[in-house]
Write a structure and sequence with these properties.
It is a single chain. The chain is 56% helix and 0% strand. α2 packs across α4. It has a domain of 70 residues: 434 Repressor (Amino-terminal Domain) (Orthogonal Bundle). The N and C termini lie far apart (58 Å). It is mainly α.
């Protein structure tokens, strides 16, 4: 991708990222933490924290993880794709079934 090209995100994903940003901001506010405090703890600029809270797709995933950790939600990143119902259903379709039980 060239330096001047725009990063394109599907509209549905853009809305989800914006929602995630709002949730991160609410979590910060509930804990009475300032943008400056989070920026300092996550070792990023205030502008980057604001971009995270907007759900910007151009912010690196690692920065999102650092911001979550700075808020005290670092373990939440492990919840991504935790309950992969579609993937499990697809996997189950490909499992070979035995016609009878083993003779062991």
């Amino acid at each position: 991708m060239s330096k001047h090209s725009e990063y394109v995100v599907y509209p549905q994903m853009k809305r989800k990222m914006e929602q995630m940003g709002k949730q991160i901001k609410l979590a910060r506010l509930r804990r009475n933490l300032t943008v400056e405090m989070i920026a300092d703890r996550a070792n990023v600029s205030r502008t980057t924290v604001w971009n995270v809270e907007k759900g910007s797709p151009t912010v690196a995933m690692g920065i999102y993880a650092n911001v979550l950790a700075a808020i005290g939600l670092g373990d939440d990143i492990t919840l991504l794709a935790r309950d992969d119902e579609v993937g499990r259903s697809l996997q189950d379709l490909n499992l070979k079934t035995r016609a009878r039980a083993s003779s062991k």
